[in-house]
Amino acid sequence: MKILDCSLFLVALSYSYSVSGTVFGPSEQKPLTPIDGEKGQRPRPNIIFILTDDQDLHMNSLDYMPFVQKHLLDHGTLFRRHFCTTALCCPSRVTLWTGKAAHNTNVTNVVPPYGGYPKFVSQGLNDKYLPVWLQESGYNTYYTGKLFNAHSVDNYDSPHAAGWTASDFLLDPFTYWYMNSTYQRNKDPPVSFEGRHSVDVIAEKALGLLDEAHEASKPFFLGVAPVSPHANLWTPKFKHGGHSDLEDIEFSPPVPAERHSKLFEGIKVPRTANFNPDKRSGASWIRKLPKQSQETVDYNDNFYVQRLRTLQSVDEIVDSIVRRLEDLKILDNTYIIYTTDNGYHIGQHRMQPAKQCSFEEDINIPLIIRGPGVPKKSTSDIITTHTDLAPTLLEIVGAPLRNDFDGLAIPLTEESLAQASETRHEHVTVEHWGFASNEGQVLDSYPRLHANNTYKALRVISKTYNLHYQVWCNNERELHDLTTDPGQMVNLLHPDERAPERIAGAPLEKVVARLDSLLFVLKSCKAQMCVQPWRSLHPEGSVESLRDALSPRFDSFYEDRSTKIEFDRCEMGFILDAEGPQFGQDDFLSAFDPKWHEWT
After folding, report:
1. From CA 91, how far away is CA 88, in angstroms rounded?
2. What superkingdom heads the lineage (predicted)?
3. Which of 111, 147, 402, 460 suits 319 as a labelling partner, its CA being 20 to 30 A distant?
């Protein structure tokens, strides 16, 4: 592996850091800093954070949630270009609560040794995440539902999850067994709710915690994390609290509450151009998938309908929480944030139900925010990611932002959103390690796991271009122009495809060179570098976007003298010496020509 060094790196960061380490990067929204009881100011706002599991945006699940539409979409802002940065439950949730990309948390999978709650603890994150910071800022914190994968009946108390005033966690191995869930309140032993629907149990617990939070007479954060619409998981070992290898677990469609079990008869997965296409697409294992049979398509349509049905219980939670906030007369001073850990695909690109890819279905996910000052019945196309949510929440409560956040607070007022539409960054970093799962039928052509699904990817979106670039761990490359190919069916870098000479207003090879260099920065970026990566390539500040970087005067720098992304090998987790050339906050500019300044 090549480890690259250059003392000039400090020049690249000097624009955003003071001597003390405080970030002085661009701000899009002034922090909210009201103090309880201070004359002329409203009390500090409360926060309700609703986090579903595996909810899609591109298969229109929000269209089937009338209470989300009534209470959230009609009274808040939908961020249509919100992305997770790792399309897998545990890494994505850790990113959400820490404000750091998975390559900086080193939680990259759902189970040990590379992920899960034990990995979260071993990386020292149990006292360095959102609820701890909120408590330090004077907030009470409450949570019910799924926290992390591998947070189980065996390890919930070794140690207890820090930072919660009161909690009622859903625990493995019962997390995805809809009719046999186990919860663990505060420091009490786990309690089984066999025979009751898991989301109905969460609904009761959420309202109980909301009442408890209100009675405490302090500003509060309440997280509500139902398992819907995740697949149902079962194995005989679960019955007695045992665990099992993924290959031994039975995945099946999610199980709705009985009252919802007959809804949406005849509804099918949207038949988009990339649904079970005649033509192969993508790269690596995806390009090898066969066209699905009618039997498989029928099974997947049923899987889709079952997801919509299980989401009805979540929709009811939204309604019950809003009505309770109204009864308590605190709705107008409460932010409600609705999102999911990652997206989902069913049939797109011939794939079985699952996530873990960098296609839009898996990474472009719902984010809705309502609250004081947030525009109502509005949409925004600014780029936001899960790394932005922890900074956003701290800014809402008036707490200082950390200088190691990899994200940028999301603007929440009409004025700041308008400003951000002109100035906010245009990129999304996406990464994944290990296997890709199949949560549908297991057939010879569709095994339970696909290995290896390790990659680095990038989305770059502006008013004039819309690109997806990916480098797989076997060093295959993938490029899609979503302006002309919104279903990502044509990999412009595959030898079987007929690529255009120009995309994004420039020759194809020049665009690829810039994207590769940008991803090279982002795949191991830290803090402000993740927000403004072009400044790392052009410290003098002349480049803020792909459009700027496409200036002909930079051709030689990007095409002849920059180090390309190249994996040394595929691994199931984040192992540095497999990741190829790197740079960090102490060593980076020599990844490019030592005379970089002559080319910028």
Report:
1. 6
2. Eukaryota
3. 147
Give whole-number Cα distances, 383 to 98, 388, 426, 460, 502, in Å: 19, 10, 6, 9, 25
Q: Do residues 153 and 275 both lie within one domain?
A: yes
**Same domain assignment for residues 513 and 398:** no
The CB density around residue 135, as the number of other CB atoms within 10 Å, is: 16
b/e per residue 246-264 (b: at least 16 CB within 10 A) = eeebebbbbbbbeebeeeb
Q: What is the pLDDT along the chain (600 residues), one digit of tens a residue?
A: 333 333 222 223 332 322 223 332 334 444 444 444 444 577 999 999 999 999 999 999 999 999 999 999 999 999 999 999 999 999 999 999 999 999 999 999 999 999 999 999 999 999 999 999 999 999 999 999 999 999 999 999 999 999 999 999 999 999 999 999 999 999 999 999 999 999 999 999 999 999 999 999 999 999 999 999 999 999 988 888 888 877 788 999 999 999 999 999 999 999 999 999 999 999 999 999 999 999 999 999 999 999 999 999 999 999 999 999 999 999 999 999 999 999 999 999 999 999 999 999 999 999 999 999 999 999 999 999 999 999 999 999 999 999 999 999 999 999 999 999 999 999 999 999 999 999 999 988 899 999 899 999 999 999 999 999 999 999 999 999 999 999 999 999 999 999 999 999 999 999 999 999 999 999 999 999 999 999 999 998 899 999 999 999 999 999 887 889 999 999 999 999 999 998 643 444 444 333 333 333
Phi, psi angle pair for 536, to nearest 5°: -75, -30
How far is C-alpha 377 from the chain's CA centre? 24
- Is there a domain that residue 418 lies in? yes
* Residues marked as catalytic: 89
Looking at the structure, tell me whether residues 414 and 503 fall in a common domain: no
* DSSP one-letter string for 312-354: HHHHHHHHHHHHHHHHTT-GGGEEEEEEES---BSSBTTPPSB
**CATH code for the domain of 356:** 3.40.720.10
For residue 302, the surrounding DSSP H or E stretch is helix 294-327
Give pTM, 2 decimals: 0.92
Residues 412 and 521 in one domain: no
In a domain, 593, yes or no: yes
CA distance 345 to 89: 14
**H/E segment holding residue 279:** none
Both 285 and 403 in one domain: the answer is yes
Residue 405 shares a structural domain with residue 547: no
Domain presence at residue 248: yes
Mark which of 423, 450, 475 sits at the end of a domain.
Answer: 423
- 394 and 510 within one domain: no
What's the total number of domains in the chain?
2
- Minimal CA–CA distance to 201: which of 219, 224, 234? 224
Cβ of 7: how many Cβ atoms within 10 Å? 10
- The answer to whether residues 240 and 385 belong to one domain is yes
- Does 435 map to a domain? no
Domain extent for 547: 9-16+499-599
Domain boundary among 388, 407, 423: 423
